[in-house]
Write a structure and sequence with these properties.
Layout: H1 2-5, H2 9-26, H3 35-56, H4 61-82, H5 90-108
Length: 113
Amino acid sequence: MSWVMSINPWATLVVAGLLEVLWASGLKNVSLQRPLTSLGVLIALAASMILLWVATQRLPIGTAYAIWTGIGAVGAALVGIVVYGEPATAVRAVCILLIVAGIVGLKLFSGAH
């Protein structure tokens, strides 16, 4: 398991977060009539969780989990607006910016390098 310690935990966490956006956004298209889409969502979910686990081996769990969910929340909200035509209100934009500010703050003040 020494290979886990050689991977950049921040890059791993970003990729895990992007995969979370993929599977969370893909949930709208999961069905028995779309088995490949459903399988893709499951693969993205598993890969996201595995990469989150890898990142938590070197980052504080609270920081890693909050950043992972933050990337997923912001990304899913943006996909909802751009792809699914969900409302793009000023209040939603402010809330998304607050999540991004929290992610940046956690990264800056996590104590991990």
